[in-house]
Amino acid sequence: MSTGFIAEYSGEIGTLTVEHLWLTGAAMLFATAVAVPIGVWLTRAPRWAKPVIGIANVLQTIPSLAMFGFLLPLPWLGERAARIAILALTAYALLPILRNTYAGIRGIDPSVIEVAHALGLTDVQRLFKVELPLAASFILAGLRTATVTCIGIATIAAAVGAGGLGELIFRGVASVDNRLVLAGAIPAALLALAADALLGLLERWFKVPA
Amino acid sequence: MSAAIEFRNVTVTTPQERCLLRGISLAVEKGTATVLLGRSGSGKTTLLRTVNRMVTPSSGNVLVDGEPIARADLIALRRGIGYVIQETGLFPHFTVARNTGLVLEAKGCAFDERSRRIAEMLSAVGLEPATFADRFPHQLSGGQRQRVGLARALAADPKILLMDEPFGALDPLTRGEMQQMLRDLLGRLRKTVLLVTHDLDEALYLGDRIVLLADGAVVADLGRDEFLASDLPVVEEYVRAFHRGERNAESARAH
Predict the structure, then answer these.
(1) Prediction ipTM score
(2) Any CB–CB contact under 8 A between B98 and chain A?
(3) Backbone angles phi and psi of B57, in degrees to 5
(4) Fewer Cβ in 10 A, N or C end of chain B?
(5) Nearest residue in chain B measured CA to CA from A134
């Protein structure tokens, strides 16, 4: 890749990277806000765990290009491509976060939970002082999987005009210019690696020694 | 004066229709240590757990200080009863100090008062606060963990202390030390204690009174000194079986 090329596109790559981060970041926030409470609720009502996790599983099997396409004709959502992209990415991120929240809390040593009850902690105290802190590294591991996956999927969002690094890739494919494809793909891969490393650090930070 | 704990015809049946307790009636006097002795599956742990409503009787009543606990506020009831189990159930993400003060923290007790009480309780169970307060459970030995479990149970100054095989997972030497420490401590604090064990020696060492359970029913209810002298067949049989088990364990160790 020549220095001329990089100089020409560096501004655009920067803007699109920020856009890419915004799409993925917003989706992760929404997904966490939805999946963690549902995961907690499932630990209280385990008979719903299978059907609810099943639904999240099905969502994840929808091919991403099809998912963006499905959402396109919907009112309000269809007006702004970014809305579609964020909703679709949120849907993909639900499963890993939901599953890990549920499994993380269910996996806590039963004697610890028993004592939390026996000491007279309220439900809210048990959740915030015991269950969520002990499941935190699990939940973060789910968030990490979701983030890395969604940074990849977000490149497809350019197909519906939501922007992000996919735009360079699509333009590169259309004009048979591999430099453009790489100008989108390399920063996207680097973003995924950086997110993986950062969340991995956070995950270890919250890990509770046994 | 009403008893500290009273069981009135307490029956517990599982949803699968298995009867765990069959109409147990028993009164535990204030400030005494009562041991629930019995083999695995005799119902002793289930009986213990009805006191803090970890188990709800299918019929019958449990009264604490003369009040039926079925009507009591569950959170307040549990905060007023210390609870120690074999697995300790220490919170692995909290330091020794925070574990010890958790009930006080949950009650909203001020930090200074809490810290003072934590130091006091850790000293009482033989852990130097300056050395141990900031450690985490995984940095402690089994015996030290059990001491923290005891300090935690006592920190909110409950009138009743429930202990379920508290020293069952410890090696014999540590267990002996812990039993001695507990006896000294109880001698000073005069709590009402209900202790579950299958260990006859522990029962005789710690209990003022020994209640022998078999198959969900009380088969003997005797003072400590009466127990060994008793010629009740169920008691004699338990004592023999216990010593046989001890000897077997010893010869297994010797080989």
Answers:
(1) 0.89
(2) no
(3) -60, 145
(4) C
(5) B93
